[in-house]
Each structure stands twice: as C-alpha cells, then as structure tokens.
Design brief:
Blueprint lengths: L5 E12 L2 E13 L4 E5 L6 H9 L7 E12 L6 E4 L5 H7 L4 E4 L3 H4 L6 H10 L6 H14 L5 H4 L9 H12 L6 E5 L7 H18 L2 E6 L2 H7 L2 E6 L2 E7 H6 L4 H8 L39 H5 L5 E4 L2 E3 L11 E2 L1
Parallel strand pairs: 3-8, 3-9, 6-7, 7-8
Antiparallel strand pairs: 1-2, 1-4, 4-5, 9-10, 10-12, 11-12, 11-13
Helix pairs in contact: 4-5, 4-7, 5-7, 7-8
C-alpha cells in the first residue's frame, strides 16, 4: 500500500487549567490514504474534535498545547513528494497549508461564517489567500464553486449574507470554501449534526461525490454510525482520549470486538425489532485525566474483570488491520502488540 497522505503518530494534546494538566488526546495514532474516507467515532468528550483541531493547528493556546507525537503530511502535489511534521513547522508554513492542502468543515456553519460579509466575499478571501486571481476571476470561481456544491441561483447567492440562507445552504457554502483550493485532505467535524434528515443525506451525497471525483481524502468526525456505514472505508473508535478499536467499516460494524464499540452498535434502533426501550451504555464518558489507573472503560463495561481495574490495556493487533484495546483478547494466538 502507498504511503498515507496524513499520518498521526502518538499524538498527545493537553490543556493546562487551574485544576491541572488535562490530557484531551492521549497517545493516539492513525493514518489516512489518498482518496480514503476515515471515520472517527465516539461520544461527546472523547477527543474527536480536539484531534481535528490538532491536525489543523487550531488548538486554542493557551490553554491547549500539543505536548507529544507527530502529524506527518505528505504533499503529493509537490514536484517531489515532501513529508512535513505539522507539529513542528512554522506558523507561516502552517497558514499556507491550512485551507490549501488541508481544509476543514466545522460543525456549525452559522458560527463559522462571518455575518458581516457576503458569501462571495468569504469564498473569494479563501481563494485570494492561495491564488493570484483578478477580482473578476475570483468572483467567477466563487460562483462556480457554489454551483459545484449544488446551490441554485449561485449568481445571486454570491452577493447574499449568511443569515439569508438556510442551515443546509450555509453548510454547502462551508463545503465550497473548504473545496476552494482543491485540498488533498478534508476534515469534516460533525458536518450534518444541525441539519434535518433530508439535508443530511444531500450533504453526505455531496461529500461522497467530491471524494470520488477529486480523490480527496476525508477525515469524517461523527457520533452517527449510520453516517459511518454510508460514507467510510475505515473506522477509528475513540473513548476518553484514546483509540479503543480500529478497522475497516465492514469488520467494525459486523464483528466489533471492544465492549464500547459493541455498546455503540447495540444502541442503534433496529427496523426488524420493536423494542419498548432502546439500549444505552450505562454511565457517562469520564472527565479527561480523571482515571489514573486501569482501563478507562472499566466503570461502564459489562465484561470487566480484576485486571481491568489495575492495568491500562495496550492496543492489540487482532487480524488484517483490526486493532482493539482490551484484555479480553490479550491471550489470543494471533494477537500482536501495536
């Protein structure tokens, strides 16, 4: 297999607060290949969004800081494929990569778009940061991008303000801005959370189309396993700042190994069964840094045993790229430590 376009190795992002150091992302590793859609799944507070902000160099500092690990980006558009560690490059270099080679769609478009400027101005601003275009060329490119993401009346909407558009239209504008410079990696942080079901389907279909036609690698952050089944090639399951399971989407959904992943899938309503009450995983995600010993999922796990309270399990290689962080599989013959 070719080298990944983006590789995260042993990433640690901590927040320094009045109550001490809080490890929001604790030693996680994953990779995304060219043209692949990687899903990152987990409950709120598990570190998904902090991971994406770390990749983009947008962790608020203070209080946040990347304290360890590497984020390796391999720029395929360069004459010679060049590998850069985004953790240690200059702020100027990071600004040239952000929005150009790596772009991001944020969760709530109304807070990401500036209400004081027109849609066209905000797209043109993204274009001018990376291309030398005349005013007329930039405006036409903005209209073309709005058409690309399926916005009708693009020639008129380019002069309208964010509050004049619906939530779905604003999210399409965010995708247009993200795709303005043909990025190699697109990070989508819960891109359909605030939208109704019909618009969700349209936005996902649009992202899928862009992925197929342009070969853009997508890192899709979500808590919706239905979206994962529809969109992703591989899945990373996170819990309390750590990766607890990783594998291709079919393996994870059909044969999950970690008790947390099993719980997430069991929580989904089933069309074939009528149940009076939907299953939910007992308890809540622990506060980052609150568990000092043992497995972080132990307090909520139905298969917990003595060792789980004393030791933190390592990520184990089960078979064919399927990894799991659980003592239940530590004795299997196929298993190797990752």
């Amino acid at each position: 297999m070719s080298k990944p376009v983006l590789e995260v190795r042993n990433l640690e992002t901590h927040f320094f607060t009045d109550r001490g150091e809080v490890p929001a992302v604790d030693n996680i590793s994953f990779e995304i290949h060219d043209g692949e859609v990687l899903g990152i799944v987990g409950e709120s507070g598990c570190g998904k969004s902090v991971t994406s902000l770390s990749v983009m160099g947008l962790v608020p500092s203070p209080p946040g800081k990347i304290v360890g690990g590497e984020i390796l980006f391999r720029q395929k558009q360069a004459a010679k494929a060049k590998e850069e560690d985004l953790v240690h490059i200059s702020k100027k270099r990071m600004r040239s990569i952000r929005g150009n080679q790596i772009a991001m769609i944020f969760q709530e478009p109304m807070t990401s778009l500036d209400p004081l400027y027109t849609i066209g101005f905000q797209i043109i601003e993204a274009l001018k940061n990376h291309y030398k275009l005349s005013k007329k060329e930039a405006r036409q490119k903005a209209i073309d991008l709005l058409k690309l993401v399926g916005i009708p009346r693009s020639e008129e909407i380019v002069d309208e303000y964010p509050h004049q558009l619906s939530g779905g239209m604003r999210q399409r504008v965010m995708i247009a801005i993200a795709m303005a410079c043909d990025p190699e990696v697109l990070i989508a942080d819960e891109p359909t959370t605030a939208l109704d079901v019909t618009i969700q389907a349209q936005i996902l279909a649009l992202m899928k189309k862009l992925n197929k036609e342009k070969g853009t690698a997508i890192m899709l952050i979500t808590h919706d396993l239905g979206v994962v089944a529809e969109m992703c090639n591989r899945v990373v399951v996170m819990y309390a700042g750590k990766v607890v399971e990783e594998g291709d989407v079919r393996t994870i959904l059909k044969n999950p190994k970690h008790p947390y992943t099993k719980g997430l899938i069991r929580s989904l309503p089933k069309m074939s069964k009528r149940e009076k009450r939907l299953y939910s995983i007992p308890g809540n995600v622990p506060k980052p840094g609150s568990i000092k010993q043992g497995c972080r999922f132990a307090a909520r796990c139905g298969e917990v045993f003595d060792r789980c309270w004393k030791e933190d399990p390592e990520l184990l290689q089960l078979s064919n790229g399927h990894q799991c962080r659980c003592f239940l599989y530590a004795q299997e013959e196929e298993v190797t430590h990752v």
